[in-house]
Amino acid sequence: MCSPLRFPPLIRVLAILFLTALDHVQASDLLRDVAAGRARKIVVYGTSLTAGGGWVGQMQSWLAENYLGAATIVNSGLSGKNSAEGVAQLSSKVLAFQPDTVFIEFAVNDAFLYSDGTPQLSVAQARANLLTMIDAIQAPNPRVEIILQTMNPVWDSPAGSNASATLRPNLPAYYQMYRDVAAERGLLLIDHYPNWVALQTDALATFQTDLPDGVHPIAVATQAIVMPLLQRRLIGDVRYHPADAPSPTLLTADVCVYGGTSGAVTAAVETARRGKRTILLSPDAWLGGLSSNGLGWTDLGDPTAIGGLAREFYRRIYNYYLSDTAWTQETRSAYVAAAQILFCKMSGG
């Protein structure tokens, strides 16, 4: 006579790691052209975050190393200037080069206050200047690609020349204006600000080291924070829908496990139990593979061969099903009786 079945059916676990209804963003015109071997002239236009920004040279190197097309970058950044000056110098600094792609960021200086506390430019004035630049760039060639960027927050560094954060108290509103204009005009937005805020919140000392003067990131920081998002947005990535969903947030960890299989879950759990900060990144909506989605005792074989986390997993499910309240489709006794018959037939007993 067959012995009683030891392992009841496994719980079907639905693990939704991301919200449903994701939209895929197509690659930028810039990337499509250089990937196809076509030359592309790029003008980067903005504040000192552009004029002296490490991301400009890093983007140039990345394009040269990975794509066939020749991408020429003209750095027309205006250190210490806001969008009013951007409008005034647009003809010589941007239009004269007949660009195919233009990057724009002026918000960090538009948000600056005079010493008496009044804004140099209101959000409405900054918006009007931004729209003026967009219209002027597209007037001679509507096919010019315009890419807007939000940049980093600032802080009152003792090594800075002025109180960066104190004199820019409304900076987030200026960045939001860039998001709004990008959505209204159908322009590509590279929204760096949330990733910087996440670093500022989670690792303040690192954030302050990365922006030693309170405003300008060092090159290693732009390589780590700015470039990954810039590359993803140019290549074309997945974003949340609807448009007002949260912006992506930078996550940091000691170990990132990629995959949704039972092996990936086991690796992530064991790593976390050993005291490491761990991220489990799954491309699938069903976490745990066959082990958590209905296949259990039929492939078990010799129970004594199961150990470690796998045995703990099976044991916890077994204990869960010992309670009659866990059985919603049939009674435990009915299942055990039917499973006993099936088990005997499969084993020839």
Question: What features would you describe in this structure?
Answer:
The termini are close together. 41% of the residues lie in helices and 12% in strands. The longest helix is centred in the middle third of the chain and has 17 residues, at 219-235. The protein is built from 14 helices and nine strands. Strands 3-2-4-5-6 form a five-stranded parallel sheet, sandwiched between helices. It has 349 residues and is an alpha/beta fold.
Defining key terms:
two-stranded antiparallel sheet, alpha/beta, five-stranded parallel sheet, 349 residues, 12% strand, 14 helices, disordered N terminus
Detail the poorly predicted runs: 1-24, 238-246
Based on Cα principal axes, name the global outline.
elongated
Report, as a whole number of angstroms, the end-to-end distance.
7 Å
Main-sheet strand order equals: 3-2-4-5-6
SSE pattern: EHEHHEHHEHHEHEHHHEEHEHH
Main sheet attributes: strand count, strand direction, barrel closure: 5 strands, parallel
Strand content: 5-15%
Structural class: alpha/beta
State the share of residues found in helices, binned by percent: 40-55%
Q: What is the number of strand segments?
A: 9
Secondary-structure map:
Blueprint (H helix, E strand, L loop, with lengths): L21 E3 L4 H7 L4 E7 L1 H4 L2 H13 L4 E5 L7 H6 L1 H4 L7 E5 L1 H4 L12 H16 L6 E6 L20 H15 L2 E4 L1 H10 L1 H7 L8 H17 L2 E3 L14 E4 L3 H12 L4 E4 L26 H13 L11 H16 L2
Parallel strand pairs: 2-3, 2-4, 4-5, 5-6, 8-9
Antiparallel strand pairs: 1-7
Helix pairs in contact: 3-11, 7-8, 9-10
